[in-house]
């Protein structure tokens, strides 16, 4: 079962890479442009489509930003910002930016898919925030090697944090994650605070592990050239957090392992 989901995660990545492809050395895929022009997408800690208008505003404000305006969303879209999730933006509007037409997203249209001004502000959607300053928490990383820490490390992280790190190394490479330090609020099923690793370009597919407590997790090696790390903290009890190092690996070195995995 685990093996199966592992393989399918790989299929998915390959499919996506083909669907989007490279242009000027950049993989044209929404997630890598997540912070395009200061605009980024957020969902609730509870999952997709859980934020009222008021909560959506609070999410952006918490991270030092505010709701994106239509103009900002469109400006980001024009440089490749593409997200297939409807979210609140300024003045109680809901919509999402589509760059590439597809049957399952945006009704085959391109542009900001605009659901208009919502009369009912208790409806639940995701959110599009605007914050042009670099965020300490999360980001899109393309370096060959880098050390990543929880916000504030080695001081304790704060409550109510959600950070996504999308790591993309060169096509054909893999990503190795090696933990240097780990101390996250302990909880039986890691439901309170946790770090998750996804063998995927987002956190919808390819969950490879969820970690909490103070045992150092084992090294992780991706199947493709992209991974996502998601760190979440709840509303009470913090800890010093984690520090890890990721490194790009040339997958030729690993082709033996890959063969074993493939049917
Ligand atoms: C507003 O939306 C919420 C959530 O979808 C729903 O529960 C509520 O009944 C709606 N209120 C009105 C007046 O339509
Ligand atoms: C990986 O391959 C690149 C290009 O072929 C090469 O420059 C680099 O030194 C290799 N890295 C390792 C760790 O083998
Ligand atoms: Ca906590």
From TrEMBL:
GO terms for biological process: cell adhesion; negative regulation of inflammatory response. GO terms for cellular component: extracellular space. The keyword Disulfide bond applies. Keywords: Cell adhesion, Disulfide bond, Hydrolase, Signal. Residues 1-19 form the signal peptide. Residues 137-249 form the CUB domain. PROSITE patterns: CUB, LINK_1, LINK_2. Residues 38-131 form the Link domain. Disulfide bonds join 60-129, 84-105. GO terms for molecular function: hyaluronic acid binding; hydrolase activity. InterPro entries: C-type_lectin-like/link_sf, CTDL_fold, CUB_dom, Link_dom, Sperma_CUB_dom_sf, Spermadhesin-Link_domain. It comes from the Eukaryota. Interacts (via Link domain) with inter-alpha-inhibitor (I-alpha-I) component bikunin. Interacts with ITIH2/HC2; this interaction is required for transesterification of the HC to hyaluronan. Interacts (via Link and CUB domains) with ITIH1. Chondroitin sulfate may be required for the stability of the complex. Interacts (via Link domain) with various C-X-C and C-C chemokines including PF4, CXCL8, CXCL11, CXCL12, CCL2, CCL7, CCL19, CCL21, and CCL27; this interaction interferes with chemokine binding to glycosaminoglycans. This is Tumor necrosis factor-inducible gene 6 protein. It comes from Scleropages formosus (Asian bonytongue). The gene is TNFAIP6.
